Amino acid sequence: MTPFIAEIIGTGFLILLGGGVVANVVLKGTKGNNSGWIVITTAWALGVFVGVVIAGPYSGAHLNPAVTLAMWMTGAVDTVDALLFVVAQFIGAMIGAFVVWLMYQDHFKATDDAGAKQAVFCTAPAIRNLPVNLLSEVVGTFVLLFTIFYFTDAELSTDQVTPIGLGSIGAIPVAFLVWVIGLALGGTTGYAINPARDLGPRIIHAVLPIRDKAGFNASYAWVPVVGPLLGAALAAGLYLVLGV
Question: Looking at residue 124, what DSSP letter applies?
């Protein structure tokens, strides 16, 4: 399996399981309806575990443009591969979101709450305050990437078969890391911490034939894209400054 395909499949599984748990919790008539935040954060963490297990041996399992940006900044992946990874991540995220809709389409039809239906695909702030919302995404992603660097004790070189990324450190530590970020820092914005995870499914939501759905919310949609990229850049920058 090529790294490009691995990133598509790994990210697709991540979004299938992450979006799937949100659908199970928030949509009307599901077996898991109203089961709560702990269920959502746990399944997202385990979704990361699955994505890393699949893609790790082939691509390093970035699964996230913010991770790819940080690895590019530290020299662990070249520019061409970084761009290919990001494209693959968006493709995978869109496919995963589409499959979630296929599976839960009867429950989408039974649900009247437009916000709940959109939440299956993308994040939204609990309290809309764009500077604070942006800060939340920056901090969450900073914690993700800065910790990953110290999990790996990354060697910043480009001569490796597998680029440095989530897959090189094992899936279980990363799953726990994503879990604690969700539990501790996710209550403000829903912790996108991944531009592809948010924007890709948001686009799918916009084009699917979902009855009485919410709008694209472009005035907020940039936050879960820009915030994670800023957080990743800050984490990579600090890691380099500290002298790795």
Answer: -
Q: What is the pTM of this model?
A: 0.92
- How does DSSP classify residue 75? T
Q: How far is Cα of residue 132 from the mean position of the Cα atoms in its chain? A: 20
**Residues 225, 26: Cα–Cα separation, whole Å:** 24
CA distance 64 to 145: 11
Report how far residue 142's alpha carbon sits from residue 233's, in angstroms, rounded to the nearest whole number. 8
Amino acid 138 reads V
Cβ contacts of 174 within 8 Å, gap of 6 or more: 48, 49, 52, 148, 151, 166
Q: What is the pLDDT of residues 139-155, one digit of tens each?
A: 999 999 999 988 765 44
- What structural domains does the chain harbor? 3-241 (1.20.1080.10)
Torsion of CA 63, 78, 167, 137, to 10 degrees: -40
- Between CA 24 and CA 120 the distance in angstroms is 9
Q: Which tokens hold the place of 237?
A: 């920058």
CA atoms within 13 A on the CB side of 186: 21
With cut-offs at 50, 70 and 90, classify the pLDDT of residue 101: very high
Instruction: Report how far residue 71's alpha carbon sits from residue 85's, in angstroms, rounded to the nearest whole number.
Output: 11
| Sign of the dihedral defined by the CA atoms of residues 206, 219, 114, 193, in that order | positive
Task: For tokens 């954060």, name the residue.
Answer: 41
Burial 219-239 (b: 16+ CB within 10 A, else e): ebbebbbebbbbbbbbbbeeb
